[in-house]
Amino acid sequence: xxxxxxxxxxxxxxxxxxxxxxxxxxxxxxxxxxxxxxEPNKATVAVPDIRVEELSAKVxxxxxxxxxxxxxxxxxxxxxxxxxxxxxxxxxxNIRECxxxxxxxxxxxxxxxxxxxxKVDPLADVATIxxxxxxxxxxxxxxxxxxxxxxxxxxxxxxxVLDSMRQLxxxxxNGLPARSFPLPENDIFLSSWKELSLLTAKPIIYCxxxxxxxxxxxxxxxxxxxxxxxKNNSGFAIICARLEEELxxxxxxxxxEMLESYGVQEIGLATIIRSGYVTLGLISYFTAxxxxxxxxxIHKGWKAPKAAGVIHTDFxxxxxxxxxxSYSDYMSHDSESSCRNAGVLRxxxxxxIVQDGDVMHFLFNV
Length: 366
Prior knowledge:
Layout: E1 3-8, H1 15-22, E2 41-46, H2 50-59, E3 63-65, E4 68-73, H3 88-96, E5 100-106, H4 122-151, H5 156-173, H6 187-196, E6 204-209, H7 220-231, E7 235-239, H8 241-247, H9 252-262, H10 268-280, E8 282-288, E9 292-299, H11 304-308, H12 313-317, E10 319-325, H13 327-332, H14 336-342, E11 346-348, E12 359-364
Parallel strand pairs: 1-4, 1-5, 3-9, 5-6, 6-7
Antiparallel strand pairs: 2-4, 8-9, 10-11, 10-12
Helix pairs in contact: 1-8, 4-5
């Protein structure tokens, strides 16, 4: 399961600079004018996880595979994007494909970088972006209402769904995001909901792009954004996109020295991915053997058969049982056989809820 995150925001807030840094590649052009990014740039990035490295050092497999994140850099939005301004419809469509949205918000002063509205105001920027998301969602629901009104004639199920869709339309028109709409227990409506892929239903991570002097403690702009994120139960991260981009040009050891000089513990990539995992309710489990050590991404709360299905559908379909060792137990014993002898290797069935860091082997038969 690859985590797909769209990087969105107004023009000139540092989206493409952040994308360059996060993907370790200078392949997203950055320029001081709107719509520099015309097509969405996509890159798959390995998720930094020290546990994978430590497992690999212990097992010494032929290959090591981290979990991955797809970052999609989407061109800057402006007022009227929902009506097609600034190629807005195309960009909004690209965001619909993402599981979550990073809203990069400018939280720094710099007279040399033009702000599209002429002043730095993070909450005003957020309001502009999310108003366009909301207006786009209203248009999507209105189109679906037209279709369902015709279908509802003489169809009881369609009438029930139509009523719920009308309630959703009212909810959005009241300025409320789709994520706060109480979903009815109706499979047909839930199917329509999924198809709509509403922008305001997606989890948001607010990313305050600050200058290097504020990368540790933030500033007055990022403080406002953080409070807004907390109020809306959303993810939040502080990053200096320019600093992150500079880091990627350095060898690993020099990166560490530079981070230490700023009092920063880790690169922004790790901060953003961690926030993404928490926001989306994701965890990782591991498989380890002589051929491969690998991290697998699942949703928190998944039971063993469903977790096995991310490896192959046959694993879920023919699931028999799972052998499970916690990461800490795995690392504190010499080998899997010693884990078994010590009684820390557990045999779990179909109702076992997989925990973050479990090292697992699945037994199945199809």
